[in-house]
Description:
Blueprint: H1 2-29, H2 38-61, H3 68-88, H4 92-99, E1 102-106, E2 111-120, E3 125-126, H5 141-149, E4 159-166, E5 171-178, H6 179-193, H7 197-200, H8 205-220, E6 231-240, E7 245-252, E8 263-265, E9 268-270, H9 283-286, H10 289-301, H11 313-321, H12 324-335, E10 338-348, E11 354-362, H13 365-370, E12 385-389, H14 393-400, H15 409-426
Parallel strand pairs: 3-5, 6-11
Antiparallel strand pairs: 1-2, 2-10, 4-5, 6-7, 6-9, 7-8, 7-12, 10-11
Amino acid sequence: MQKVIVNGLIFINAILMLIVLYFGYIWYQNPENQSLEPKIIIILTLISIIGLILGYFQRKKLQCPYDSKKLHDNQRYIVKTSIEKLQNELKDAKKLIFREKLLLENNGVENIFFPIILLTKNEVRISDGISLIVDNNSINTKFINILKTQCARNIWDNLTYRLIGLTNDNQLIIGESSYCKTLSTCDLHYYNFMKDNDMNQCRGRNYQEWFKALKKIVFNNDFTEVSGSIGCSTLLVIKNYDNDKYQYYISNNSAAKNPVNTKHVIPSFMFAPTANVVNPDDFKVQADITLQMIKEFGEELLGIEALEHVNTMNQLKNIINKTPLLVKLQELLVSGAAELKILGVSLDIFRLRPEILTTLIIDDENFFNDFIPKLSWETEDVAGLGLYNIDDTEKYLELIFDNEIPLVSPAMACLKLGREYIIHTRI
């Protein structure tokens, strides 16, 4: 809103300047026939010049201070350096275990590490009840306001489920947190990498704070320094019955979702309670990954805006039951013609956010024929939704190594693991 006001004032001053120049020109051509007094022309000229100067500096002040190119250009160096530092703190036996938590691809010259660390490659289950451990982290209001006002982020401080710990039998211990606490303690590091030169050169206080939190999570399964609200990324794969190919979708994030030019798998979402209310008695239903994925499928790929504003579980189920394609999806998941496979849980190195990685595979001709994407505000536009063959290795590597509009960290992991699973089981 502030940007709109400033741009409006600059426009008004520019119009005023043109009017003043017009009358100044008339006065210059015919000093005897004055439409305006010379003093008034001079005063209006000064006012418009001052207005334009003030508007310029105010507009510059409101510009988003985060330069995504700075991070994109340095990403591989930061990841490689940080992973090496983590490995150097481990004994030889544990180094091998740690390396199994890493993902990499070869770009034809060298192995490139993904900006993620796998917390587990196994299927996981959600804890039976919500933890009562309180999230004592605070909200960085200055940072949040910069994202809202200068970077035009759509931000609502909704309740979220955060990861407290991961047990040896791959159970996720879940607690309550909020989106703004996650931005303040997790995403803040990511934005610092786009702003702070010391972060990009792997030094300085901000870098040390980030690296300390990263070590605690990776080595000690300790998320206390961050409000690690859980995300869920889903690689959507649908069999194309026209060419007998399995195809997956990749979306371009809109500026309102992320001011940084990035791509993501779709649907992707924050793991959060329905209606922004944590109900311990309803926790198992609220924390159902399949139900949340179906909700986001309807919201992000069918454009059902009502799903963004559901107030109760009954309301959510009513909307789903009134949407034929979502009903069909539920039926396919029950019959086995569709599969939601949990691929593991990753940690975004830059954001320090845990992410449940999944792939949704749909192998049904009727669904293929009926599915026409209608996108939400989170995707740039329909043209920003890419569709690729799962067995196209060249396109896969192009997406993985794209440095102009890169995949976000969990999307890279989701694409690699999901693609491997589908090729192994379907092709």
